[in-house]
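User: Here's a chain of 382 residues. Predict its fold as tokens.
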Amino acid sequence: MKITEKTITNNTSKLETAILADQINRHQQLLLTWECEKVETAAMVEQFVCHFDVPVVCIGSRVEFLFPLQSLKALMIHVQERWNNDRKLLTSLEQIQEHHQILWRAGRFTFKLNEQPVIYGILNVTPDSFYDGGKYQSIAEITRQIDKMVKAGANVIEVGGQTTKPGGFTEVEPQEEIHRIMPAINILKHDYPQIAIAVDTYKLPVMEAAIKAGVDIINDVQAFDTNQKLALMAKSEVGMVTMHSSRTHDYDNLTVAIQKFFEHNLGTIAAAGINLERVVLDQGIGYAKIADEYQDYAMMRNIDQLNYLHRPIMVAISRKGFGQKLFNLAKEDRLDVTLIAETAMYLRGGRVLRVHDVEETSQLVKMIDTINSSYWFRSTNN
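Assistant: Prediction complete.
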């Protein structure tokens, strides 16, 4: 037996074709055909597939079904339990998994986003960041916070030495920003080699210093907008977080505008000789012309409209001002609404979660992933 992936044909109406394309590209569904040797086997396979609560039909010795990509690992586990001697079947599933694997190559690390999301911890060593500004100024405070995030499950820790909070901020000189971030980078590099090091900066000299110091990721809120930045990235292997910002723009169709922005941005990055597997997309929630208004909520909802680009998408809404706007919550009291919004975005395809609260986000991911991978089979030990 084997499982193959079907492609959309032109045998259906334009609307039906559009619906199928939407299921595949936005909702990350797979059109699969399970080819069996006998009709009797196909009937048994159909019953097996029905356990996954998906649309399924049996046509002779073929079983066709629509299957969520996020549950492919669960399918592979249960197939192996039942047909562990069918190497051809197992290999066909492995090939489908490999075909849809989304990689993020970031310096020393390669993250497989379909298998495991990235918990991306925020460490601002600034006096004026909107949430944690001033908290981590001494070496002892920085060390304690890094250790706390690592133990809570962070895969990446991002050091920020320049705030870009809404409502205005004071820009610091590159040398001052470098001075702020280097102690944390050195601690991470020497004491936590298993953790990817990121730096949040839009300044070329800071990027140069960070890369020279051995960081794995650069997060640029200005989307690597100069030839000098792109040339620097092309000479390195660091991961890149490229962000859409609309602080100076009004949009008619927000979704289309963001799609066009990233299509152009990715094209520019690729033209500079940079492997797009190094790139993560950030919609820029909180960077609207009027921060914390309904444009931000629309971006929370339409995050899955970027899945067709086949790049990891960052969820970067931790403790932001929508909690104050909707519920009049102080920044210290916004954890619950942050987790709710992060869950909605995670379910829509946001696989890199940039957060202040690592422990709670790790619990969120484990809970959602457990639910999404849980299917009841009487013959297993569930």
